[in-house]
Structure formats: structure tokens, C-alpha cells
Amino acid sequence: MNVNTNIKKTIYLMVAALMVALSPTAYSETPDAEEMWKIIQQQQKVIEQLQKKLEQTEEKVQVTEQKVEETAQEVEAAAEAIETASSSTTGSGWWERTSLGGYGELHFNSRDGDDQVDFHRYVLYVGHEFTDSVRFFSEWELEHSLAGEGKPGEVELEQAWIELDINDNHRFRAGLDILPIGIINPTHEPNTFYGVERNRVESEIIPATWWEAGAGFNGEFAPGWNYHVVLHSGLDVPVTGSSAGRIRSGRQKVAEATADHLATTGSLRFTGIPGLELGTSFQYQEDITAGDDVGANEATLFTFHGDYKHSSGFGLRALYARWDLDMVIEAGTEDDEQDGFYIEPSYRFSELVAMGDIGIFGRWQQLDLANDREEESVVAGIQWWPVDQVVFKFDYENREDEDANTDQDIYSLGLGFSF
In angstroms, rounded to a whole number, what is the distance separating the alpha carbons of residues 299 and 283? Predict the structure, then answer.
């Protein structure tokens, strides 16, 4: 039943009631002809007025129904336009699928009275989602504030990859990417780790930050179990000179890099317990010197780490990394192993000060480097997070190098941020 039918019925009932009220039965005496004529005229006027109001009401209802229909059509058209724009790669809403981020670190170091200040790195992230299942991510870095010929810094492209969803749990990724090894390499924003400088084991043995060009798969094969498998470019470790055998010096950074000998990396991480991450990785390189004629130069890397954060604020990190090498350096000197480990307990006090958190930590680390050079250090420090994305750091390190017969005291101040 529509609105017009209801209005008409109501009016007819009102007219009928009025006629009954004005009918001769409502009078105690029978009206004469003149009075009857007056009654009829009054009834006619009422009927005409009600008929006029009915016509006006019908017009308003028709206009309202038309506006409702037009509004519904406009809403539907707007929704279709928004959906089309959001899924378009060239539409006006492209920025809604583009994200920016980054981080930076400013360091002051004092080594036995030799002081240095350095804006160590500034990094910018740019990401874009082409669709819900195809995405891009990149990372640009400026090291040591100033780059160019004769300058201390570099401009580097550390990540630039495309990732495609195979299904809800598995993805394919190709391009320039950070290798999924250790703790610092995948997650190296300064507000996420203790210490002004990155720990020596993950800087020299792994060595962070380490990226290569390649392709592979990643995902979750069971709740809390994540994997990466990547085929990628390899290292080019020098076999002569002052950096002979140094793993860190072998990073080619995908800059016209030799690609005659590829490498393979696989990693597995467990995060199924709140606050706990356990991870392991394995890498094989056919020739870690990228084709040097001396020796076979095969190499395998194994790492294991644990990272635990309790809700009370207590934290504990530990990592072990080991290279097994078949490498000849310095005219016949063999290097068959390089490894290192560190243990790092910490405690973060929430809201200990009016603004932010305070954290304290200690770290013991040992390294066995090229040419059997052994290094041991102890680090202790304090950090303040006014907000989670900003951190101020201070630490002290005592570093001993048995082969070089050195014993350094290093004081460091740092400012870090990410966004």
C-alpha cells in the first residue's frame, strides 16, 4: 500500500465523519429547506478544501520520490567512481596506495680521545600497492651525510623489489632485497635495537646491512612459522690487500656486480609465542670470491638467533653466526672459518620518567675474523625513548684485539628516529 492510498483513505474517513456530524440526525429538530441548503454548501466547501490539500500532498510525494531516486543514483555512481579510482594504476587516487617512511642516525664516538661526529645514515622508504596482490618497496640511503668524489659518504639503493601474492600465505618476490639473515639485517631502524652502533657480530660476520639482487619465495606455512628461500647474487671477498678475507668487504651492493657465481639463502623463523622470536638461516656460495683463480672458494653460512621481550620490560637477545670457508688468501694462507656470537640482556622501564621509557642493556660479544684474528668486547649503555619512534642513546665499550694487541675504550652518543 503506497502513501497516496493512505492519504486518500484518511481524507475520505474525515469527510464521512464530518457528514455524519452535520447530518440531520445531529439536530434535535428537522431542518427546513434553507437550512439544508446551507449544510450542503458547507459540506461542499470542506470537500473542495480537502481535495485541494490532497492534490498538493500528491505533488509533494511525487517530488520527494523523484529526489530519493535521483539521490540513490548519485550515491551508486559515486561509489562506482571511487572503486574504479582506487583500483586504477593511473587514477587520481594513486597516492592512497603509496606510502613513505624512513629512519636516520646521528652518532658521536670517542675512541681513546679521538672524537668524531657523523650523521651515519639517512634512509627514505617508498612503497606502492599496484593492486591488493601486487606491491613495490624501495629503500634509499645516504651514508655519512655527504657523497661524491673524495667524500666519505655514499648514496645507495638498498631495496627495490616487486612482490606478488600467490595466495593468502605465500608470496613471490624479485628485485633488490635485504637478505633474511639474523636480527639486525631485516630490522635495522635505530629505535628497534640497543647500542649506538650495530653489534660487531652482525656487522662483520653476517654482514649487515647486506642486500643482493635475486628472486624467491616467502610466507607462512603454519601459524607462527615463516620462511624465505632466495636465489641471489653473491659476495666478492678480496684475497689480497688490507681487507683480504674480510667478509664485509665482499659486499658488491649490486653495482655492476659480478654474477658468475650465484648464492642461495634459506631462513626459518618462529614467532608463535608472544614476545619470542627464534630464527635460523643457511647460505651457500659456490665461490665467495666471485671467480678468483686461487682455491675453490666455496662457502657456507649458518646463523641462529633468539630474541625475547617480556611484558615486564625484560629482554634477551643472542645470536651465533659461522662461515665455513674453503678460501685461500694472501698467497697461500688458508681461511677455513670465521664466526662470532653475542649475548645481550636488557630491561626497559615503561613511564619511568614523565615522558617516555628508559632502557638499560649489556652485551658480550666475541669474533674470530680473517687470518684467525680474535676480538672480544663488552658494551653497556642506557637509552631513552620519548616516543617509540625516537631514541637517545649512550654506551661504553671496551674492545680487545688480541692479534693487534689493542685495548680500546669507546664512548658513544646517538640520536635515532624512524617514521
Answer: 8
Q: Which pLDDT tens digit goes with each residue over 182-217?
A: 999 999 999 999 999 999 999 999 999 999 999 999
Q: Residues 69-98: pLDDT tens digits? A: 776 777 677 666 655 555 544 445 778 999
Rounded to an integer, what distance in angstroms lies between the CA atom of residue 6 and that of residue 4?
5
Is the CB of residue 120 less than 8 Å from the CB of residue 100? no
Residue with cell 672480544: 376
Distance of CA 149 to the CA centre of its chain: 34
Matching residue, cell 614523565: 354
Give the DSSP letter of residue 198: P
Residue 247's CB is within 10 A of a number of other CB atoms, namely 24
Element (H, E) at 267: strand 263-270
pTM of the entire structure? 0.77
